[in-house]
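Usage example:
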Amino acid sequence: MSKAAKRKRSPTSRASAKRETSGKGARTLNRDTIIAAALAEIDLVGLDNFSLRNLAKALGVFPTAVSWYVAGRSQLLAEVAHKVLEDIIPPGFHDSWQGYLREFLQRFRQAIRAHPNVAPLIGTQLVANPAVDLDFVERLLAALAHAGLSGVNLVSAYNAVIAAAVGFTTQEFAPVPAEGTSAWQAEIRTRLQNVSSTRYPQLAKNMKLLGNKAFTLRWQNGTDAPLDSSFTSFVDIFISGLEQFAGRE
Amino acid sequence: MSKAAKRKRSPTSRASAKRETSGKGARTLNRDTIIAAALAEIDLVGLDNFSLRNLAKALGVFPTAVSWYVAGRSQLLAEVAHKVLEDIIPPGFHDSWQGYLREFLQRFRQAIRAHPNVAPLIGTQLVANPAVDLDFVERLLAALAHAGLSGVNLVSAYNAVIAAAVGFTTQEFAPVPAEGTSAWQAEIRTRLQNVSSTRYPQLAKNMKLLGNKAFTLRWQNGTDAPLDSSFTSFVDIFISGLEQFAGRE
DNA sequence: ACCTGAACACCGTTCAAGT
DNA sequence: ACCTGAACACCGTTCAAGT
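Running the assembly step on the lines above writes:
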């Protein structure tokens, strides 16, 4: 229904058939180069300031050259998100299933930590990627099957793992408002410090532990103030919950 | 550094001092009206097609009239996200702490289910809201304190709850690519159906249970294909994990 | 096949002007 | 205080043209 629906027979379909680094000119532009450059650009200027035109400028080509390889902005962003997550599959299944999940969750976090500016894309783009890495899904399912899960419970547990990975990490590295940064940084701080201990006893009691360390009470994101111990606890909580869930079978 | 940084003495600061529905003209425009209209517009056309100019048109004013009340696009979106989540605090603390958390997570999901188009904003905008609802945080902390948690573990558990809520729900209702919808819908289906049972045994075995029901293997989002039972299991897993975590103290 | 080049319809934001 | 109105610098995408 939208304007994107009326696209037709775009030449974007399949581009990287052969490579031909053989003789003369040596094609400089290709799909992977563009995606890599897009990621670098996003790392540099942030998601809000990223544009296809600036990307083209960085690549030294016309804006329309990019769209010969990539169907549009949103598809490019999907590819970028995919690239960031390309190495999250733990190598082998040496350990226990708990160890496998633990390593997966840590790898997921590290992947986003390395490119925090793409964090907002992760939750959005992981919906249904046509280029889903089936190996990734298979291995995760295998680990959960090792835990004794099968059928609908296996599927539920799989969804739970993805939800857990996405939830903590996208939150932790979500961009901080660019506006009057130091202005509301101070506002949150003082607001927390002056909180009424009769009306908000728990907040008052744990004020120092909460400041800049609890979601919605932070003034920096995971890049500047990582939540390492919270993440470790989160993984512990989640995995021990899965153990119980699997044991119930 | 960015262009937003050079804003100065904008008249946007404080707008709704008095209301004056008294006599003659009856101010038609105000902050709440704008936020409500923005949410309605996003519900209607989606986040990608939402623009301040169309919003202004819907309100019957000039684009620049809107920015007298709202500092900019991103701030408006933050307010919209905040509005969607305004009723997620469970009313009383009647039940057990487990019951409280369960209700909170369900309310969170229902809130986003009612406005799925804002789902991508939730993870992003919940970072550090200057207008954080302290009552919300206090009640959540109180529930977790009831579980026997305190100190750093209390903070970790709080973060875990937020992460869990955000993770599942934003995923479940994340927008589906608008491109050649039915094209890749079919692609995912057939790809899943033709999966090699030797290379991907778990995928092959659970093919029917996974199709359109597992993250990254869906071709619809939660609006068309809700993941009710997966969500229930997720909540079970998480809460029983929290029980263990609290018992370890 | 791959890229240039111009053009289109749109966008958020600024700045001056009205009342 | 609140809104109009014009203008600015930018954006993604389309379409024709080159090689």
